[in-house]
Design brief:
The chain has 182 residues and is of the alpha+beta class. The protein is built from seven helices and five strands.
Amino acid sequence: MIGERAARELRGLARVLVRSGYADRAAVTAALTEAVREDAPSADPATLVPELIDEAVAALAADSADWPDETDPDRLDVVLAELESLGVVVVRYCTDHHDARQALEAAAEPKGLVFFTDTDVWHAVDFGMLELKVWHPDTANVAPGEPLLDDVLALLHERDLPAVFDEGRIETTLTWQRRVGY
């Protein structure tokens, strides 16, 4: 038996992992198994984890029935693909800035880097705002008035994704409705 607080936190984690749309079932299972072992050591992960995932998937399926044909994450994907076509390295749903830096350093003649982490997506799922980090090829943050920042902001606005640059990052307002297949 697990406590009410642990159960609520585990359901919340399952929810954001599933709704992120970036983690497959195996990755969600691994993350939840680790969380169950840490937060609810008396529970059996082999039983609890599939229940948590199935509950989150069912809730997502019910919600997605009313979504528009094109969602905000769909429009974001178009922006990110356009940036990639311009030579900008794009890293989606990475663990941290070290992962993003490695991708940037591995690229041949990158024009810059745009990335967001798993926790940025989880925040977007719950609060409707995704933080995008934008770096120059030398890993320096962009600054107001620089062409790379202006280009990223213009592409976001062209796709009806409200965005502002604040304290070294772009805050993009969106409703996180990403369709997933489980």
